[in-house]
Specification:
The complex is a heterodimer of chains A (157) and B (266). Chain A has 157 residues and is α+β, with helices and mostly antiparallel strands. Chain A contains five helices and five strands. In chain A, helix 2 crosses helix 5 and helix 3 crosses helix 5. The termini of chain A are far apart. Chain B is of the alpha+beta class. Chain B is built from twelve helices and twelve strands. The longest helix of chain B is centred in the C-terminal third of the chain and has 19 residues. Classes of the chains: A alpha+beta (157), B alpha+beta (266).
Chain lengths: 157, 266
């Protein structure tokens, strides 16, 4: 067991965890931030995607200890109070989900895509979401949501 | 995952000391292969020595026709670095095809090369560009480095510091990726080096890991044209066969990927 400290959603946090603890388990079990999901546990589905120092990573594929001192944003940190993040807003408007299990990861990756490329082409969106699996939607509304999110962000929303 | 101790190396010397201190210690780079391996309990290191904060393993530098890339440079940094994009655009493109967005944000060049997965992308690039692997003990030529699936010339306790990529006249990589995993079912990298020689590196297809396709090299050295590749065949005897593709298909794909890589350069 060792003490791990990091900043999560703007707050300094710390917790005791075994060295083998995955970051996703630290977020869910130590910090009770259960919005970050574990879908496959084999690094394929992307449900556990979070932002580590501003970049999308799979939190099931790193140890909590590796994130010592890092600045982390989870799905819980995306909305500003009652105001949804533009990507969340777009997924709501376009119904970019069905069961919702993959949605936290989809939103975190989509936000990262839009940071890199504010006006992504359909191909950029599809390639960008390569590491996120959805077993319900067939992706059509997810791609639509990312395009809509770009519109909201670019119009100052 | 089995229980283990996590250790963060502060310097290259510190990493070597920590690694030598425990017989079952293992180095961790980006962890994008290692952590899934640990989760599947396919490895049981007693200690993990994390290289993420070792400064000597960072950085991209172009000097005297050689592009030096630190072992801990992430795939994302390789694909998005203006220095790499200008000096070896084929390498930036290769990096952009690795894994997915999240994996490219963590996975590193040194980690990939040390692991030497038979379907990893960098080995084809290293063989084609005649890249030198610089470790804390010596310099290893590309042709001496890869020694079969997941096997390399690295000795116990040896740590990759950087890879020195001679800037070629031009190079390109093309891969046929598995639609789910993104791993190369076959990937071919062609480099026309500064001295005019041509090297062709192949990944994903060989039954003993990445290899050079010398017949294609000789044909392209005579004439750097699509016509030179016509009729050239890889022997399926030396190709991987698994549930994703039989050996004959992989052998065929190597040629198709060579053609596509060459098309990018003509």
């Amino acid at each position: 067991m060792s003490k791990i400290e990091m900043t999560v959603n703007g707050k300094k946090v710390s917790g005791e965890a075994e060295d083998r603890t995955l970051l996703v388990n630290f977020l869910r079990d130590n910090l009770s931030l259960t919005g970050t999901h574990v879908g496959c546990d084999t690094s394929q589905c992307g449900c556990c995607t979070i932002h580590l120092n501003g970049e999308a990573v799979k939190s099931c594929t790193m140890l909590a200890a590796q994130a010592e001192g890092a600045d982390i944003v989870t799905i819980e940190g995306m909305a500003k109070g009652e105001k949804l993040h533009p990507v969340q807003q777009a997924f709501t408007e376009c119904h970019g989900l069905q069961c919702g299990f993959c949605t936290p990861g989809m939103i975190m990756t989509s936000a990262a895509i839009l940071k890199q490329s504010p006006n992504p082409t359909e191909e950029e969106i599809v390639k960008g979401l390569h590491g996120n699996l959805c077993r319900c939607t067939g992706y059509v509304n997810i791609v639509k949501s990312v395009k809509r999110a770009a519109e909201i962000i670019n119009s100052g929303g | 995952m089995y229980a283990l101790s996590y250790q963060r190396a502060k310097s290259l010397e510190d990493a070597a000391t920590l690694l030598a201190a425990e017989p079952e210690a293992k180095l961790m780079a980006g962890g994008q292969t290692l952590i899934p391996t640990l989760k599947a309990r396919l490895a049981q290191p007693s200690h993990l020595v994390d290289l993420a904060r070792v400064k000597e393993l960072q950085g991209i530098e172009l000097k005297g026709g050689v592009l030096s890339i630190g072992a801990m440079t992430r795939h994302f940094d390789v694909m998005s670095s203006p220095v790499v994009q200008k000096a070896i655009p084929g390498l930036a493109n290769l990096a952009s095809l690795i894994g997915d967005l999240q994996v490219r944000n963590r996975g590193t060049m040194g980690g990939s090369i040390a692991n030497n997965d038979p379907a990893a992308d960098y080995p084809a690039g290293v063989l084609a560009h005649n890249t030198t692997i610089v470790t804390n003990r010596r310099e290893i030529a590309a042709d001496d480095y890869f020694q079969g699936m997941f096997a390399t010339a690295l000795e116990e306790g040896e740590i990759i510091i950087r890879l020195d990529w001679p800037v070629p006249k031009q190079s390109a990589y093309s891969k046929f990726e598995h639609p789910a995993s993104g791993y190369a079912m076959a990937g071919t990298c062609i480099a026309q080096l500064a001295d005019g020689s041509v090297r062709v590196g192949v990944t994903g297809a060989g039954s003993s890991g990445a290899f050079r396709w010398t017949e294609a090299e000789e044909a392209l050295a005579k004439s750097f044209s699509l016509k030179s590749l016509e009729g050239l065949k890889i022997d399926p005897e030396n190709c991987l066969a698994d549930l994703h593709a039989p050996a004959e298909y992989r052998a065929h794909l190597v040629g198709v990927m060579a053609t596509r890589a060459l098309q990018k350069m003509l």
